[in-house]
Amino acid sequence: MKAIELTEPGRFSWIDKEPPGAPPEGCAVVKIHCIGICGTDLHAYEGKQIFFTYPRILGHELGVEIAAIGKNSAGLSVGDRCAVEPYFNCGACIACYAGKSNCCMDIEVLGVHIDGGMQDFLTVPIQKLHKSNTLDYSHLALVETLGIGSHAVDRTELKPGENTLIIGAGPIGLTVLVFALIAEARVTILEINENRRAFCRDVMKVDRFIDAKEAIVPQLEAFNNGDLPTAVIDCTGSAQSMAAAFNYVAHGGRYTMVGTFPGDLTFSDPNFHKRELTLRGSRNATPKDFTRILSLLEEGRIDLAPWITHWATRDALIEQFPTWLNPNAGVLKAVVDWT
After folding, report:
1. HSE (CB half, 13 Å, CA atoms) of 202?
2. Percentages of the chain per state (helix, strand, coil), in multiples of 5
3. What whole-number distance in Å separates Cα of residue 43 and Cα of residue 189?
4. How crowded is the C-beta side of 197, counted as CA atoms within 13 Å?
5. pLDDT tens-digit readout, 128-159
6. Strands 27-37 and 333-337: what pairing?
């Protein structure tokens, strides 16, 4: 079977692979239909992705069809359409025992630590498949990215009406925005890209934006009756942004970092302590996020149609992929039709 391998930063190659055999007990073989492209893939192409080694087959946002499966208690059968939970956890470490499989000590993420979905077939554990009878493959491929936002909002413990700043309205920031709005938070967006601001305004109906070219703290205070937001969520993966955001959180507030970058972060200890901030990281998503998101999508409470701005066939992927790195390309979410 055919696969596309990221051989080194900036270079994809077609390779031949042996197709998987009959699935072992507890696993299924799935046929890849659609692959969502996210920041992880783009950063890997640029050589900036943490927890990453080359060569690697990318692809962790997957809409798949079950091609082979044995008897199972999950009620899954050949032909079922599924989203894939791409975080393969050990089940035996302190995080897994605590129900935090998303940050397992020995986690293997498809397309990052192990080869992902840019190939015709893949063998995955049955418990990592989440079935839908109604969603198409492109929307199933975006369930994982929505899970990042669902988990981040849960980590932040947003309350109805809470003044909340989301920094960065790229694909991950938008997933955070979806669930912040579901939580009925009062959201302000800090984003320098006008296309993304327009999407938040026109599609997500957000009406509070910070002008990054002006002093940020006074603008936040003006929105919040003289106070800073009690919840700040940074989705940029920018060290400069992540460090600056400590200044945007109200005394006694909460700051959640969703974006990552390959380096160290420093901040003012006196500033941190005088505010008694709660600082949290948010990584991946949990099985309950996938279950919740499938229900919301099937009920029509999340509309993903406007999100997919760019498509590629698998034959055109190598040529088109680099163009998605250009900020002027207007990419919100790119999806690969692998069929």
Report:
1. 8
2. 35, 25, 40
3. 23
4. 13
5. 999 999 999 999 999 999 999 999 999 999 99
6. antiparallel
